[in-house]
């Protein structure tokens, strides 16, 4: 018996379903908790060919009540959510390619993964994490689907270029300011760790299913008003939010708030260059030399999403610890070196803060460090400024 392609004899009986298109699609799922589990299960069952899973957490016992992909043994081992989710969806559908990334979406995930995706699905539980995904998705012109659950309720929304984005929808301007201002990274981490709300597997199944249903429309390129042979009309959630309330059995969708003209998230990066000669193993010095030779221009500034920390200052005693690590490694560093500090007492000394960003120039003392060592993740897109223009250079990926 010849082996059939995934979905053959099933999905090809559905008039609008294109097995080939779905198999070629790439979907990134940010967050592998209750909602992420449901989304990933559906993507695997539908035969979505390429799936990128991002999460920075480990599996705990409390996750088992609503995570279809996790087992008791995973919680015992405190295994990474992203890794186990990847393993389990491969068991469901061995034909799919899965990449799992254990890291913080704000700083440790290369923007190349966003660029390589057809659609990004957010399964997050904090405003700031959503804000970050929204920022990167719009920067790279990718639609993204937000989902959220609480108890028996949930919501899903689709955001795409030209329409109101998630940041536009934050009616409360103070929330926007909170996220925009420098230092939001710590707030973001904290809210992810402590801001959890009780959810049920029921709302996760419903909202996760709606998110994947909308992802399928995006993958197929279906727009509002498209008609199918049984005279069904496509209505998407583009610039709308769907709400589900389990206890009083209500479901409705409402149009997203107005487009916010001054929204900081609407600028996208154009003319991204894929440069096979730059990887995270390239040193800062080599990058300067190569860039000048290849592009005939001189680097003024490299924007780092993951600020490079030279020292950690402990205020009461004014003690200084030499760190030389990217911001995302600070917590690990503090634990490893048994540095006793409270949050109030911490201060970071940065090389050259300028408008919330940090720049490396030729006088950078640590120019023999590689991009990886200063905090640039694999498959990232470097934002380089020269006197005349901005360059966006995608680094070669080791895994993609
Ligand atoms: Zn916006």
Structural account:
This protein is 30% helix and 22% strand. It is of the alpha/beta class. The protein folds into two domains: 11-255, Rossmann fold, CATH 3.40.50; 272-395, no CATH class. Helix 2 packs parallel to helix 4 and helix 2 (34-46) packs across helix 10 (201-220). It is globular and about 65 Å long. The two termini are 33 Å apart. Residues 179-195 and 352-356 have low confidence and may be disordered. It binds zinc ion. The site of zinc ion has 8 residues, from helix 7.
What key attributes describe this structure?
400 residues; alpha/beta; Rossmann fold; 2 domains; eight-stranded mixed β-sheet; four-stranded mixed β-sheet; 12 helices; 17 strands; 30% helix; 22% strand; globular; binds zinc ion
Gist of the model:
With 400 residues, the protein is of the alpha/beta class. It has helices at 19-24, 34-46, 72-77, 81-92, 111-116, 127-139, 166-169, 173-180, 184-194, 201-220, 284-295, 330-336, and strands at residues 26-30, 50-55, 97-102, 119-123, 144-150, 153-159, 240-245, 250-255, 272-275, 301-303, 308-314, 319-326, 346-349, 353-354, 357-358, 381-385, 390-395.
Could you name the CATH class of the largest domain? Alpha Beta
**What is the CATH topology assignment of the largest domain?**
Rossmann fold
- Ligand roster: zinc ion
The whole-angstrom Rg is 22 Å
Total domain count: 2
CATH architecture of the largest domain: 3-Layer(aba) Sandwich
Global shape: globular
Topology:
Elements: H1 19-24, E1 26-30, H2 34-46, E2 50-55, H3 72-77, H4 81-92, E3 97-102, H5 111-116, E4 119-123, H6 127-139, E5 144-150, E6 153-159, H7 166-169, H8 173-180, H9 184-194, H10 201-220, E7 240-245, E8 250-255, E9 272-275, H11 284-295, E10 301-303, E11 308-314, E12 319-326, H12 330-336, E13 346-349, E14 353-354, E15 357-358, E16 381-385, E17 390-395
Parallel strand pairs: 1-2, 1-4, 2-3, 4-5, 9-17
Antiparallel strand pairs: 5-6, 6-7, 7-8, 10-16, 11-12, 11-13, 14-15, 16-17
Bound molecules: zinc ion (ZN).
Residues 164-165, 167-168, 260, 263, 265-266 line the site of zinc ion.
